[in-house]
Specification:
By secondary structure, the chain is α/β, with parallel strands linked by helices. The chain has one domain: Alpha-Beta Barrel (TIM Barrel). Helices cover 44% and strands 14% of the residues. The chain has a 4-stranded mixed beta sheet, covered by helices on one side. A 4-stranded parallel beta sheet has the order 5-6-7-8. A 3-stranded parallel beta sheet has the order 2-3-4, covered by helices on one side. A hairpin with an 8-residue loop joins strand 10 (344-347) and strand 11. Helix 6 crosses helix 9 and helix 7 (155-165) crosses helix 9. The chain is globular and about 60 Å long. 49% of the residues are buried.
Length: 359
Amino acid sequence: MSQVQQALERVRAGQQISAQEALSVYQEASLFELGMAADAVRRRKHPGNVVSFLIDRNINYTNVCVARCTFCNFYRKPGDPEGEVLSHQTIFKKIEETIELGGTGILMQGGMHPDLKMDYYEDLLRAIRSRYEVHLHCFSPPEIVVLARLSKISLREAIRRLKAAGLDSIPGGGAEILVDRMRRQISPGKCSAAEWIDVMRIAHEEGLLTTATMMIGGGEKTEERIEHLDRIRRLQDETGGFVAFIPWNVQLKDTEMEQVIHEEVGSVEYLRLLALSRIFLDNIPNIQVSWLTQGLKVAEVALHFGANDVGSIMIEENVISVAGARYKAGRNDLLQVIERAGFIPAQRDTLYRNFRKIA
């Protein structure tokens, strides 16, 4: 039996494989073998044949950003006449629309605005919390690094104050690839890989659960994808604070990155990475498929490649859509994807709790 086959046997037996074994499996196993192993892990972790979905809204409170990501068309440089910070009233209206549609959470992220300090974020969170009963899943690690630096406070103090003001959990955005070679190349103004990990570690220590993400297709090496997964798994071993992992592929339309990367990640490559994520991240309970970047048909297949969640109907999404993501989905669309794949749909909250099966 080959080393790859031995590794896959251990996966099926519920055992952990090393980063080096994961690299070999990723490079050498067939798509069918990867899918079968990932499906076995999913069935072991989620034996009830249920696949979850969420109704929430992604609110981008500002498009002003200093990160200079080569894959982003949404941001505007400081001083740009098209730069804006949404008013509280505009944000309130978006939240009210979300609640009317059955939404239970708000995913709020923005640019790394050089003028917004801690008092802005505290005031916004408190204003929302005083008006609405909705889960606030807000501010990715790069944003928290910047607001802490601008406010001349530590990351821990920043996270404690955000939590006290009403923050419920932290999204895993801004991870891209957790390798500094890639970060300097595609998002030169963002925090380092170690800083991203530090924010998440402190958040977990302070009682905030988070998600983790990974963006593929920006020119990273296969070994760097494995390094990213390994950093996530090692932190999860330490803290247990990640509730889900969401891999997605970069959208290139009219971006600066398009001048360098001429072909987007296809469905087979995405499914291989998704399956490996489920196999390797044995300590993270949930794997979410990115239908927004891959489409509903691929999402349906992905439910047999390790994913147990199809994410949100995405009432609003700006960043990826501006770069060419063309897929749309409502509640009924996601229900059909789940049912066609042979599963029972269930609506969840942001932290994968409060399952309500859909008859």
